[in-house]
Structure formats: structure tokens, C-alpha cells
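Render this sequence as a predicted structure.
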Amino acid sequence: MPSADHMECALSLARLASGYSSPNPAVGAVVVKDSQVVGMGYTQPVGGPHAEVVALAQAGEKARGGSLYVTLEPCGHFGRTPPCTRAIIEAGVAEVHIALVDPNPVVCGAGVTELNAAGVKTYVGAHEGQAREINEAYLKYMATGLPFVIAKFAMSLDGKIATKTGDSHWISNEQARCYVHGVRHTVDAIMIGVNTLITDDPKLTARGCGGKSGSMARQPLRVIVDGTGRTPPDAKVFSQPGRTLVAWTDPVDEMKKRLLEDMGVEVVVLPGSDGLVRLEDVLRTIGEQQISTVLLEGGSELLGYAFDHGLVDKVLAFIAPMIIGGTEGRTAVGGVGAQTIAEAISLERLEVKSFADNVLISGYAKKASAGVCSAA
């Protein structure tokens, strides 16, 4: 297997860790000796071994004199687990191929330096683009302390997410909804506005279709943004496994707040005005809880605020072949919006996928890149 294929294998392993490794990055590693793969691994859930350690343990003595292919720079510090650089050096690995240098300030270049000092040859940069995409949320979080924001909506051909009566079940088809549960599996949090909570009463859990199980540990944090204090205590989200956070702004109904807190709901009161919570503060609050990825699932008002304030990193837009019509039908993105076409938010790195008669258009909002670190 050529060396390029070894890194491709490591990248495939890293993808297996997505949704399980956070707040750690999703990393894959492959150990090669005499052109044969002798060890493979990917990052285990928090507190478990890192990808390099798993791969080295599988390789055993065969790692000595071999090559390690890893998608992110090995750490050289004690955290929840011992440093990976020490394990690599003690295993007698001769060379390490690294796709991407870790932007974490306690790692950034230090792992490469330590390996070089121990006589281990290092090569950096193979398949860097793919490695960055796998850990795009981790890279942003390391650079800003804020989660990577994915805006997701399903709409008709004429841009409606619901009829004038609020009916939206279902615009997207079963295959598309199954895909969304797969996306929920990879994120740390799902966020909606209070209008969506009241209208749809969703569970906001990752279930089925390869998604997370119903266990407490594996469900994403559910976040309700409620600037008007209208959150109904009997909403389905509060009876689901996992954590729920409600973000309010003053004035606060103290009785309802205590009721929710007695139910195990975390209630935070944040700045806001005109019935809107400052979404920037919501993101900062959950970022402080090591939430590195959040999926915005509506409604129109929440998405509009996020786009108006440049908070969206990625868009997942599902389009169904139907026309809802009507001037009172709800549009996907509200808010102030662009005043001119030139001011409209453009997407790049577009992908188009089909789910039977539904189409998914995904892309990244154009903005300055973050999380760059050089090992030089």
C-alpha cells in the first residue's frame, strides 16, 4: 500500500471517531512496517486512549523501526491521558507522517519538536485539507472558544419551511430525515428557538439511522433560545435522555425558572433586547462547557439572527419538490437579511446530494479561516 493510501486509511479511521471523541479531536492512526499495516486506531471517547496509542498497542513490537501515519499532531503533554509522543518514542517508531499540526496552544508544534529531538523523523502536511475538514469544529473552537455552527433547514422549492398555519410535517422525506439524525450524531449540541419548540414540540435527540443511542452520555446537548420566557415545562425535550439548556433574557419568570431547574434543566439568563437573546452569548456560554459543534435547526427567527450576525459556518439546506405558496408561509431564514444581492451571504465548497426526490445543498459561509498553526 503506497504511503498516500496509508494516510487515507488514517483519515477514514478519524471519521469513525467523529461524534464520539469531542471535546477531543477525531484522530486516526496507522502503523506500517515493511509496507504492511500492523496497527490501526482512532480516538476513543473522552478519558480513553488516543488514536496513536491504540494503533501502537495493536502493532506491539512490530512498531519498532516502522512508520506512523496520523491525521493530527501527537500531543506531548499530560491531559486526561499520558502524552502520545512518549508512547511513539518508547515504541521505537522511526518516522511519523502528520497530516495537520494541532492548533491547541499546548500542542502546536511541540509534538513535532519533541519527536525530532528524540531522533524520530517527521513529515507534515500530507492530506492536510481532508484532515482540516474532519476536525473543522475542533479547529474553530481552539482558535475562538466558540462552537462551529451548522445551520440546517428543510424547505419547499419556493423557500417555505411551513405553511401559514405552521404545518411542516413533513417537508423533507424519510431518507433526508435519516441523514439529519446522522448529522446529530456528530454534533455536541442541537439548538432551536422557542417558536419551533412550541410549534413542533420536537424531541431533539439523535436516534436510529446510525445515530447515537438513547443513552444519557451520547445525546447532544439540547439548547432552547427563548427571549420571551414562553418555554412550556411539558415540552418533550425535557423528558428525553441527556441534558437540556434554556437561554432566557430578563425579565425572568422565577417560578417557571425554578420549575425547570427542579426538572434538571439548566437555565441561563443572558443579555438581550426586543424579545431576542444575544446568540453570541449563548454560543459563548455553551463553548465554556466544551461544546465545539452546534446544529441550528430553526426556526426562521433564530436562523435569521445567526446569518445577520455572521455566526454561521456551514449550511445544510434540504429542498423538497413542492410548492407551499402564500405570503404568510414561513420562510427558512428571517431576520433583517441582505439589503443588496452583493451583501448576500455566499457559500463555497458546495456539495449536492440526493435523497430520493429531496436534494441537499451544503456549503460553507465565506469568512476568514481559523485555527492555523505552523510547526516551522
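Summary. The mean pLDDT is 90. The chain is about 25% helix and 25% strand.
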